[in-house]
């Protein structure tokens, strides 16, 4: 179990160091997850030493939302003042994300020139 946590932390540390060194605007933990993903692809499966701590972290994932909830409560006055801007930003960013996703899908999906998959 300790070996699994060590692997996870080393991947995160490697991602942090890589992003600091390269100066890329990608969070270190995201780069660490990519490093872990590539490592698992090359290994071919998830080793038991890594599976056990990962399942434990996933089992208690809901605890990671507690700080966000506390932050919402702590800054409730500011949120109450700026609710309209927050709402408009959430709605517009959702539509932008949907639009960009549709463009990427259209660019990557081969056109079928009117044919259906069924026949």
From TrEMBL:
This protein's record includes keyword Transmembrane: yes
Segments passing through the bilayer: 25-45, 57-77, 83-105
PANTHER family xrefs: HOLIN-LIKE PROTEIN CIDA, HOLIN-LIKE PROTEIN CIDA-RELATED
Keyword Electron transport: no
Subcellular location per the Swiss-Prot or TrEMBL entry: Cell membrane
GO cellular component terms given for this protein: plasma membrane
Main localisation: membrane
Pfam family, one: LrgA
Highest taxon in the source lineage: Bacteria
Protein name: CidA/LrgA family protein
UniProt topology in membrane: Multi-pass membrane protein
UniProt keywords, alphabetically: Cell membrane, Membrane, Transmembrane, Transmembrane helix
